[in-house]
Specification:
Layout (H helix, E strand, L loop, with lengths): L4 E4 L4 E4 L7 E6 L10 H19 L3 E6 L6 H10 L5 H22 L15 H13 L3 E4 L2 E4 L1 H7 L18 E2 L11 E7 L10 E2 L2 E2 L2 E3 L1 H13 L3 E7 L3 H16 L5 E7 L2 E3 L14 H6 L4 H9 L7 E3 L1 H24 L18 H10 L5 H13 L4 H15 L9 E9 L2 E8 L4 H15 L3 H13 L2 E6 L2 E6 L1
Parallel strand pairs: 3-4, 3-12, 7-8, 12-13, 14-15, 17-19
Antiparallel strand pairs: 1-2, 5-6, 6-8, 8-11, 9-10, 16-17, 18-19
The structure holds adenosine monophosphate and zinc ion.
Length: 491
Amino acid sequence: MTKLQFYNSLSQKKEEFKNIKEDNVEIYTCGPTVYDFAHIGNLRAYIFADTLTRILQYNGYKTNWTMNVTDVDDKTIAASKEKFPELEPKEALKRFTQEYENYFLNDLKKLNIRRPDHIPKATETIAEMQELIKSLSKSGYAYEKEGSIYFNIKKYAEKYSYGQLVDLDLSQIKPGVRVSTDEYEKENVNDFVLWKAQKAGEPSWSFEIGGKSFPGRPGWHIECSAMSKKHLGVPFDIHTGGIDLKFPHHEDELAQTSAGCGCAKPVNYWIHNEHLLVDNKKMSKSLGNFYTLFDIEKKKYSPLDFRFLCLGAHYRSKMNFTWESLEAARHGLEHLRNQIRALDSRLDTRLDTECSSAFEHRVSKCGEKFISAINDDLNTPRALAVAQELLKSDLPEEEKMATILDFDKIFGLGLSRHMEITVSEKISLKDEIFLVQMPKDTPEEVKELSERRAKARQEKNWSESDVLREQVRSLGYEIEDFEKGYTLKKR
Ligand code: AMP
Ligand code: ZN
C-alpha cells in the first residue's frame, strides 16, 4: 500500500506521515472567526481538513479532530458592539457570535463535513489562555506594558527559532516595538500581544500575575495555542489552516506553545491550503465577489456541487471559482450519480453499503491507484479520475459498486443515497415543466409539500418556501434544487 505523505510547511517538502501516539492522530484546525457568514474560501479550508481526516481514517487511523471557534477578537468585538449597543459587552458578544456559529455548523452539515470531535469556543477557554500567559511570563518570554502583555520575540529567538513557517528578516526585530492588532503584515516582525488591557465598553476577564491584576481579553494567537493544548496536548500531530494563517498567526502560535510548554516542536506537520479566488481575484465585499453557501444555494446549486468542485482542485493549488466552474461541477456530479444509479439498476441485489468497507476492494488495480492518489498529499483530482476509470472498467458490477462506495468515504458526496432514486416524475407548475427525482417509496404527503414549495419558489415567496422545506425535513426528506426541478432524498 502506498505510504501516506503530506506536504509539511515546516520542512517545505512532502514527508511520510508518522503519528505520535499509536493508532490515534491528533489534528487541530483553525476554525472560523464568527463575526459574519463563512465565505466559500473559508469553506474550502474546511472541506480540505475534512478530507484529510477522512484519508487518515481510510488508512486505519483513529482521529481526534479539534476545530476551534474564535468568538472573541478585534472583529467580533467591534461587530457585536455595533449590533447590540444596548447590551452588556459579554452578553452582546455571546448573542452575536452564537448566531454565526450556528450558521457555520449548518454549512458544515450541508457540505457533508463531519463534525469535529471538539469544537471549543475561545471564550470558554480563557482560564487555559491565562495559564499559558502566566507560564510565558514566569519563564521571561512575556512582559507587561500599560496593562497589556506582550510576547518577547528577541528573547524567544535566543533559544528557539522564529520564522519556521515563513522566511523572515529577523534583523528587522526592534526590541520593544509592539503590535496590538490580531493581524499584521510580515514587514512588522514585532512583539505581539498576548493579553490586551481592558478598554471601556469591551468584554473583559481578569487574572493575576505576581499579585498584579490584568483585566482584559486575549490576543487572537494565544487562543489557538491554549485550545489545541487543552484538547490535544503538546506535542500533537497535524495543524491545518489556510495559507494566509502561516504568518503571523501560526508562527506566533508555534512560538507561544514552544516557549510556554518548553517544547521546540509542538506540532509535527503544518498543512496549509491555498486560497480560493473568485474571477481570479481575492474575494472582497467591495468588489462584489464575496460569496457564501447561501449565495450558491440561491442560484439553485447544491452545497455538494461545491464540494465536488473543491475535490477537483488540489488543495495546494489556487482554485479559481466562477459560476461556470460550479455549473461544470454540477454536471460532473450529476453524471457520477447517474452512472451509479445505472449500475445499481443492473444489480440483482442491493449491496449492503457497510460491506463495501471490506478490504478486498482496495487491492484491485483501481483500488491501488486510488490509494496512491489520496496518499500522495491528498491528490483528490487524481482520485476522481480513478473513480471514472473504475466505472468505465470491465470489472464485475458488484465489485464496481462496492469500490465506488468505498471511494466515497473520501469524497463525502453521499453517493450511496442516490442508489435509492429510482423514479422521476414531471410536474407542471404554471407553464413550466419541472423534473422531480425521488426514492420510489416517497410518501404522497412529502411529494405534495415539496410541490407546493416549488410553486412558492416560482412565485418568489421565499418565506413560504422555507417553511415548506422544514415540513419536508421533519418528514425525513431533504430537497436539493437544480435548474428546472429538484431531488428528494431521505435524510
Ligand atoms: P477566518 O475566519 O478568516 O479566520 O478564516 C477561516 C479559515 O479560512 C482559515 O483557515 C483561513 O486561512 C481560510 N481562508 C480564508 N480565506 C480563504 C480563501 N480565500 N481560500 C481558502 N481559504 C481561506
Ligand atoms: Zn488558529
